[in-house]
Amino acid sequence: MRCPGTADLLEAALREGADLLGGLDPLIIDGDLDGQLTILFDIAERQGVGIDIHLHDAGAHGLAEIAAVTDRTLTSGMAGQVTVSHGFCLGAANNDDFA
To answer: Three-class SS of residue 28?
Structure first.
């Protein structure tokens, strides 16, 4: 989102043979959670690939990102095709957060 042309490069990589789409810290890196997820899920659906999003954000930011990724995964019908790697926020989450 913060570097124009990145979405085009991601799609080009998939056309050239990459078989998985990656994302990174939508809030801290891009400052646009919905924007990054919209681009990633749109590309993944068009190209028929899965998504792996690396989340290093802690606390409320990280939990909000995981909730948003979960919602997008379910509404897009991509269950089983989306992975969150690292998920640093989960190490400090309490039972209420998991509820």
So the answer is: helix
pLDDT digits (tens, 9 = 90+) for 22-40: 999 999 999 999 999 999 9
Cα–Cα separations (whole angstroms), residue 72 to 9, 61, 66, 91: 22, 16, 10, 23
Known catalytic membership, residue 61: no
The single-letter code of the amino acid at 41 is: F
Q: What is the pLDDT of residues 69-94, one digit of tens each?
A: 999 999 999 999 999 999 999 988 98
Q: Phi/psi class of residue 93: alpha, beta or left (left: φ > 0; alpha: ψ in -120 to 50)?
A: beta
How many CA atoms are closer than 13 Å to the CA of 88, on its beta-carbon side? 11
Report which residue type is found at 58: A
Distance CA 75, CA 52 (A): 17
Domain ranges of the chain: 20-98
